[in-house]
Amino acid sequence: MGKHIPVLLNESIEGLNIKADGIYVDCTLGGGGHSSAILAKLTTGHLYSFDQDQYAIKVAEERLKEVGSNFTIINSNFEHIKSELLSRGITSVDGILYDLGVSSFQFDIPSRGFSYNYDAYLDMRMNQEATLDAYYVVNNYSEEELRKILFEYGEEKFARNIARLIVRERATKPIRTTFELVDIIKKALPAAVKRNIGHPAKQTFQALRIEVNGELKVLKKSLEDALELLNSGGRVAVISFHSLEDRIVKQIFKKNVTLDLPKGLPFIPQGYEIKYRLINNKVIVPTTQEVEENNRSRTAKLRIIERI
Question: Regarding beta strands 23-26 and 71-75, do their DSSP bridges make them parallel or antiparallel, or are they unpaired?
């Protein structure tokens, strides 16, 4: 298992502007790197950390216990942030962090099927109790459904070629493993393209992972709920790793810091005040040093918003 290295750690913790007595939420516990850093800054405050992966919870809980005891781990998808906190008597918080994507250790456990670098069953479920996995998607979705997923979630230019070949290959026998899928993807791409890109399966694997875990629709719902939960002066910080996630974050933040007034009004009517402000107008990215030390951070982007 690879070492868990939290991405944009200093920037995100500083961006949350943590108060020692505040209530904070880490929507993506993972290996516990960000949660540990938040917990270290709390005295009478409390941290609530979400994760739907039992293995992640087990690993991170031990790490958090070394820092403090004023934390609660919630075994649930962050889609349920509002209802899960409400069930614990929490109606408002001082800060919320999202570190999106897949945890490093999930990639590094071959049996989870997230990585095209290991041969494993096509799983890709963040929640091991979920029924939908990558094997089902690859072997049961129609050619058009596969093409749509690869194009929209993976931004794969050769989505049509890959989808067509998947359907053709699975007619002979089911596509069971990550390497079987990688071989099909390689066959579907023109030779010139394979010479000039990174790993040919990267975008397809991203697309399947997003579909299996419903990542984009979950992010949208959760982020809108998160903004409503903030106290005055409270902040939401989001670390994203690909353009689809970042686009959703950027659009939701923009909507909430922009006054959408009917045209021609001589004055601003009551109820139209702006409730949020951007902390960083320009997206925050890792330093050259961080990228050198942790290659997985290279595409990371951090955006922060505050309730006024």
Answer: unpaired
In sequence order, the 6+-apart residues with CB closer than 8 A to the CB of 216 are 153, 210, 244, 245, 248
CATH architecture of 115-213: Orthogonal Bundle (1.10)
Report the alpha-carbon distance of residue 16 to residue 6 in Å, rounded: 15
Domain with CATH 3.40.50.150 in the chain: 9-99+215-307
Alpha helices in 111-214 (DSSP H): 134-140, 143-154, 159-170, 178-188, 191-196, 202-213
Cα dihedral 54, 218, 306, 269 sign? negative
| Global confidence as pTM | 0.89
Digit-coded pLDDT (tens) for 191-231: 888 777 789 999 999 999 999 999 999 999 999 999 999 99
Q: Specify the pLDDT at position 207.
A: 97
Q: How many whole angstroms separate alpha carbon 7 and alpha carbon 9?
A: 5
Mean pLDDT of 253-270: 74
User: Using one digit for the tens of pLDDT, what is the confidence trace for 126-185?
Assistant: 988 999 999 999 999 999 999 999 999 999 999 999 999 999 999 999 999 999 999 999
The residues facing 24 across adjacent strands are: 47, 95
The architecture (CATH level 2) of 9-99+215-307 comes to 3-Layer(aba) Sandwich (3.40)
> 62: which 2 tokens?
């031990």
